[in-house]
Design a protein that fits this description.
It is a single chain. By secondary structure, the chain is α+β, with helices and mostly antiparallel strands. The chain has one domain: Roll (Thiol Ester Dehydrase, Chain A), CATH 3.10.129. Helix content is 17%, strand content 34%. Strands 1, 2, 3, 4, 5 and 6 form a six-stranded antiparallel sheet that branches.
């Protein structure tokens, strides 16, 4: 017997509320992640891959690139994309500030929280605060994502 899965209806702009929270799975910043980021970005600064270089500059470990920390807030790693599969037009803006250093083997805990809803004619802008804490519950990154989302009255657009 095959059981059908229940698929939740897609959310539209009007379905969101300030304070809605999206937890993103934690990730430990391993040597592999450091290497993949270096390869993808082309960033060859030794502060990100040479342990002795880092130690001579007062760091206990290799320092994660700020963008490596920022990408941990990618909404696609959580449940948000499945909730807006029919209403998402696109990511339209991002910003962020690195607050504390992140080192190799730190575990990061990202979350997104709906912080502002700006209604427009047929769409709305959903702004989410992006937060990343480390394994010691220290806030290491804070920023924003903005998404353009269809309104229910614009479903066929």
């Amino acid at each position: 017997m095959i059981r059908s899965q229940t698929i939740n209806k897609s959310k539209y702009f009007e379905d969101f509320s300030i304070g809605d929270k999206y937890l993103i799975p934690s990730r430990t910043q391993t040597s592999g992640i450091f290497s993949m980021f270096q390869g993808a970005s082309g960033d060859n600064d030794p502060i990100h891959y040479d342990l002795e270089y880092c130690k001579k500059r007062g760091h206990p470990e290799m320092l994660a690139h700020g963008l490596q920390v920022f990408i941990q807030t990618a909404a696609g790693a959580g449940t948000f994309p499945s909730e807006v599969r029919d209403s998402l037009i696109g990511l339209i803006e991002v910003s962020g500030k690195m607050l504390k250093p992140v080192y190799r083997e730190d575990t990061l805990y990202p979350e997104l929280i709906v912080s502002r809803l700006t209604s427009q004619n047929t769409t709305g802008i959903l702004e989410m605060k992006a937060l990343v804490n480390n394994q010691d519950n220290i806030l290491v990154f804070e920023g924003y994502h903005k998404y353009l989302i269809k309104k229910k009255n614009n479903i066929n657009a």
